[in-house]
Amino acid sequence: MQINKISMAKKTLLLLEKKSWKNISISSVLKNEKKTIIQNKTELLININRYFDYLLKKNLSNLEDSSKKDMLFEVFMARLDILNSYRKSIKNLLKYLSSNPQDFAKLFPSFAESIILMATISNIKVNGIKGLANIKVIMILYFLIIYTWNKDETESLEKTMTTLDNYLTNFDKLSFVF
Fold it and tell me: Is 48 helix (H, G, I), strand (E, B) or coil?
């Protein structure tokens, strides 16, 4: 990921810590940027998501090969640890997106790429009909876990980890996917 895009993602997240998404202007993020290809606020959101994907790949470069369930658990928790680093910003963004689904719809293709990345890192098939089913299940699971994470005020994310483990165990028992 380019350094200027990392810088813009961090700047956007910093602004989100203090303001709602609605009150952030693209010019406030792009101020003092010499060269940018970001044209609108949707692209700022996509940039943040790609920044999180970049951090996820970087943090999991040495992920040990184990069961798909265990690997997916590690990937989810690594992603949540990244989000937790920007907790207030992400909570502000989630609050905005939950009342403005049209803006989430614009972000959806980038979000789907993140789900595919998470599945790929976990050695879960993403091609064909089974791959499509896997992606859908992981996406639903991600939404459920983000909902839990958003309400989990424990420092260690204990409630989120327990909920994630329970969901993964139930999916594993059903042999539904993976």
Answer: helix
| pLDDT at 178 (0 to 100) | 61
Distance CA 165, CA 72 (A): 10
Q: CB of 20 within 8 A of CB of 89?
A: no
- Long-range CB pairs of 7-10 (<8 Å, 24+ gap) are 7/33, 8/33, 8/36, 8/38, 8/44, 8/47, 9/47, 9/48, 9/50, 9/51, 10/51
- Report pLDDT for 102: 94
pLDDT score at 112: 96
Sign of the alpha-carbon dihedral angle for 126, 123, 86, 145: positive
Tokens of 60: 């999991």
